[in-house]
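Q: How would the C-alpha cells look for this protein?
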Amino acid sequence: MRIIKEHDEAGMRKIYLICYDISDVKVYRKVHKLVKGYAVGGQKSCFECWLTESEKQGLAALIEQLFMGTAERADFFELNTDYKAGYYGIASKNTFNPFFIF
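A: Here is the predicted structure in C-alpha cell form.
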C-alpha cells in the first residue's frame, strides 16, 4: 500500500536510506514488500527511497503497525544528495534514473 499525496511540501522529495533488522520471517516479508514499493535502489534490508515528508510519515506508521508487539526496528536516514557516490570492489555506477508520474 503506497500513501501518496499529489502536492506535499511543494512536492519536495528527499532521499532516505531505510534500513531494518527483522527476525520474524512473516513480518520481514511484509516490510520488505512495502519498502521495496518505494525503493529506487538497495539490497536485502537497506533501500534508497525518494519520499515526501507525508510519504515518509505514512510509511513509518505502516511499518510501526507491522512491528506491533515485537522487538523489530527500522530506521530512516536522510541522505545528502550533494555528495558524489564512492564505489568499492567491483561496484559500478547505477544507470537507473528514477522518474515520477503524478
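Confidence is low (pLDDT under 50) at residues 1-7.

Residues 53-66 form the longest helix (14 residues).

Upvote if useful.
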